[in-house]
Amino acid sequence: MEFVIKISQFLLSLSLLIVLHELGHFIPAKLFGTRVEKFYLFFDVKFSLFKKKIGDTVYGIGWLPLGGYVKIAGMIDESMDKEQMAQEPQPWEFRSKPAWQRLIIMLGGVTVNFILAYFIYVGLAFAYGDKTTSLASLKDGYWIENQLLQDIGFKTGDKILKVNDMEVVNDYDVRSNIIGAENFTIDRDGETKVIALPEDFLGQFTSADSRQLFERRIPFMVGEIADSSFNKSSDLKVEDIITSIEGQELKYFDQLNSIMANYKNKTVQVGVLRGNDEFTATLKVDENGKFGIFPGMDRDRFAELGYFDITLQTYTFGESFAEGGRDFVETMQKYGAQLKAIFNPSTGAYKGVGGFKAIFDIFPPFWSWQAFWVLTAFLSVMLGVLNLLPIPALDGGHVMFLLYEMVSGRAPSEKFLERAQLVGFIILIVMVLSANINDWI
């Protein structure tokens, strides 16, 4: 069921982004009297799942969900329709239109991507506001479980004061500035330290077994009791919180292993908090020092118990437009920084470039409209920025040649454009294959 939910979100988001991106090309093309021969969601290699011709355009759905396209008459694109290009230019063809009209047509897709992302951020700000956790409320610092962070010098309990030279005030500031971070200033037991990150930190992180970074310290809440657990028939219920073991306080889940090491193959008395009631339960510990209980997560409950603060900032409809704009600009800046790191081999960030599996994996295994729209907005920004890269076969490649034509007063020859398109297509294939191979290694 989890797979069905994830794949549904993935395909819905991808379909929405593709259709709107291609509409961004389609609408100005039609406004300028340019014939659009095909409008497809997904690729129709050999056959289509659905197609219908309306006017001059065939609308359809392909079977290969790797993107979509519009085929514009008289344009050198991935279709490489040399037969059409060998004929005399017709008034309704792309190549017959003024350069400024062709530029608008080519920029239409990414423009729609950016507009879509902006309005999604506006809607998110109005519907959900912003939830943040102040670092001051993390009284005992962060939980550092990732071995890479431990090797660099971080320890559980560290409080983060600065990322580079920027003071951080909430949990989001820490997470959102990982890319581009060179050092962290921390407070460890009242002593200020500076921990430098290795230049290839991003590469090491993407290759590490754990993808956890700085985690909030939380109590041991019961999420699920394994069927194979000795404690399957215990008195515990989901959302109970284990507060002590044999009289020893268990404030945080990260303290569990060190305490349990003393009770392998034993029966212990644990303190339990259920709602506002406290009681004692008897649990068995296996030979590995485990209860066979999977931890649960309820941030609002943890905030209620004082583990950290959650501040909700709400926005009026009018305020949401400014807040949505800030979120959009920030996302653009951070994705730009991510691309810069990826194209700098010394950072090793290219190792983390993923393909369709990586995109699929970021969707949660439960249906959440908030998560869906947050991810769709980010993917819309990503799609827009990537399409602006000056690579032939991408929108940015067409724009590059059009700008050259507008500045120089002469267009590149069709033979040159055909060859450039082929080179660009090969580059794209290599990039897509590399990204998708990264998903599995």
UniProtKB/TrEMBL annotation:
Q: What is the lineage of its organism?
A: Bacteria, Pseudomonadati, Bacteroidota, Flavobacteriia, Flavobacteriales
Do you know which NCBIfam families this protein is assigned to? Answer: RIP metalloprotease RseP (TIGR00054)
Which GO terms fall under molecular function for this chain's record?
metal ion binding; metalloendopeptidase activity
Q: What is its EC number?
A: 3.4.24.-
Q: What membrane topology was assigned to this protein in its record?
A: Multi-pass membrane protein
**What family does this belong to?**
Belongs to the peptidase M50B family.
Q: Does the keyword Transferase apply?
A: no
Q: Tell me where the transmembrane regions lie.
A: 103-128, 371-404, 416-437
Required cofactor names:
Zn(2+)
Q: Where is the Peptidase M50 domain?
A: 10-430
Please give the SUPFAM superfamilies that the UniProt record associates with this protein. Answer: PDZ domain-like
- Superkingdom is Bacteria
* Keyword tags: Hydrolase, Membrane, Metal-binding, Metalloprotease, Protease, Transmembrane, Transmembrane helix, Zinc
Q: Where in the cell is it found?
A: Membrane
Name the predominant localization: membrane
Q: Which GO terms describe its biological process?
A: proteolysis
Pfam families per the UniProt record, alphabetical? Peptidase_M50 (PF02163)
Quote the InterPro entries the UniProt record gives: PDZ_sf, Pept_M50_Zn, Peptidase_M50
Q: Name one GO cellular component term.
A: membrane
Q: Which protein is depicted?
A: Zinc metalloprotease
